[in-house]
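Priority: medium. Attachment 1 of 2:
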């Protein structure tokens, strides 16, 4: 009987283990912003490249915006973001050149 009382007292006086703080569902974790910025850099590159062929009036400004945000957030893929920025600007320059050539707002092959 004495042994169980000692065991009970020993477990009762132990401090409870600290529980980790609960995070809200959907709350961003550390590193998510960098992953998002890397994705934006890649997306700006792809959209800028596609914008040279089709829908450059829409894809060019989107590529510029995504590249700018990716660079502002500190992406690890800075080269890809700068390429997306350059391609987005090139999309708009191609649009202006073809608009001057055809005297229209759009262009085709």
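Attachment 2 of 2:
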């Amino acid at each position: 009987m004495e042994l169980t009382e000692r065991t009970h007292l020993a477990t009762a006086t132990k401090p409870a283990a600290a529980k980790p703080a609960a995070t809200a569902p959907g709350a961003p974790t550390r590193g998510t912003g960098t992953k998002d910025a890397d994705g934006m850099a890649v997306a700006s590159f792809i959209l800028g490249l596609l914008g040279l062929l089709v829908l450059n009036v829409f894809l060019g400004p989107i590529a510029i915006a995504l590249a700018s945000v990716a660079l502002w957030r500190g992406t690890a893929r800075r080269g890809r973001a700068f390429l997306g920025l350059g391609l987005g600007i090139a999309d708009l320059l191609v649009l202006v050149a073809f608009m001057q050539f055809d005297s229209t707002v759009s262009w085709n092959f």
